[in-house]
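Chapter summary example.
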Amino acid sequence: ESASTSSCQNIKRPNIAWEEIAEFPGMARQGHMCASDKKQEMYCWGGFSYVPAPDSMTLEEIKNTKKKNPYGYTDGYKLSLSKSSKSNFTGKNKQEKKWKWSQLPALPSHQGAFTALCYSTSADAIFLVGGGDYDLKQFHTISDRTGTKLRVGAMMWKFSITTQEWTAMPELPGTARLLHSISCVKDEIIV
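The structure predicted for these 191 residues follows.
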């Protein structure tokens, strides 16, 4: 059985077996990004979505058919392992671990499609760099889809793990970024 676009799996070592975990709570999507912090919690934002065309459609039909639900997402979710006590039939409490999703503050800008994230241990923060806004026609990096926010693909944000708030950082110089990578190394972010 193949996983749906909203199902999540975890691989256990050393057995190397996949375990089904809590289903992603947001709309099914692609092009989103995730980063893990020092507590091994995974933070995910953005992406875009549309319902793919059926295999039975010709290329011409696909070109002339409006996609359903085209959208660049700004919502975010955190996946963490929670521990709970559960009484068993002997009356003793047993520690049970369970994967759980919780909602995060949304991205402050429509740049969630093909953005890049990295976690900085020194800042205890996740940095978001570049990306684009998506609508039915294209990915926007020069501005958002409305043309009101300029250079969304050059924007940079810092998400504090402690305060759970976004802070604007200086824009990247040069060309806007889409489908790029970044790394947090000590006190630097390498794009």
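To summarize the output: Residues 14 and 20 are 17 Å apart (CA to CA).
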